[in-house]
Amino acid sequence: MHYNSEPVWHNAKPFFTHQASKNLKSWIVERGSLTQRLIKSCEDFRVEVFDEFWGKPDLSEQKQLQQPNNKLCFIREVHLFCGDEPAIFARTVIPQNTLRGELQKLTQLGAQSLGSVLFANNHIQRGAIESCCVNKSHNIYHQALCYSHFFDHQVWARRSPFYLKNKPLLVSEYFLPVIEKFSL
User: Fold this and answer.
1) What is the structure's pLDDT at 90?
2) CA 176 to CA 49: how far, in whole Å?
3) What is the pLDDT of residue 39?
4) Neighbours of 69 (CB within 10 A)
5) What pLDDT score was predicted for residue 15?
6) What distances in angstroms separate CA 174 from CA 27, 121, 142, 145, 164, one per listed residue?
7) pLDDT at position 4
8) How many CA atoms lie within 13 A of 58 on its CB side?
9) What are the structural domain ranges in the chain?
């Protein structure tokens, strides 16, 4: 089967206004830590690393991070679980120039959530949130839902750049169908 390389991202609010449920919209526009919100919403939270590697970001990720297409970035993909069910799939792209000094620790988080590190930093700034709808024609859909029993569902996603000491990284979060059962 042939998959599209990546979904098309849009400014978050205008894109989903009439398409996503109220509960899902609240997750998409959340400016705080999704990790903290998920921890408050479920009993047994955990992070499971799907993959970590040095690789080329997708074209839209390169543009968002203003990276030349031949530059490798550190890419981390994780599932955020509530009990036995994955609720969020997250993909983080970190340029080499961001990983200097104390920020090198971002490549060694293991089962620690990136959100717990980012939102503990007083020097963090978040850029604009974009959103998209992902379906089974996109490669990322299959990665996001690999542990889920939901298939043939569309998956809403958001992404935004973060700046730590003016150094960028890009976080994309894919809301798996089970997220709908967690409160506003």
Assistant:
1) 95
2) 16
3) 86
4) 9
5) 60
6) 10, 24, 11, 9, 23
7) 53
8) 16
9) 10-181
Q: Could you tell me if 19 and 28 are in contact, meaning their C-beta atoms sit under 8 angstroms apart?
A: no
Q: Tally DSSP H helices, then E strands, for the chain.
A: 6, 8
What is the reported pLDDT for 169? Answer: 94
Sign of the C-alpha dihedral computed for residues 22, 116, 145 and 6 taken in this order:
positive
CATH architecture observed for domain 10-181: 3-Layer(aba) Sandwich (3.40)
Closest CA to 74 of 46, 102, 103, 47: 103
pLDDT averaged over 10-residue windows placed end to end, the chain, 184 residues: 65 64 80 86 90 93 89 94 90 93 86 84 86 83 74 82 91 88 64
Strand 155-164 relative to strand 130-134: parallel, antiparallel, unpaired? antiparallel
Token readout for 93 is: 């792209």
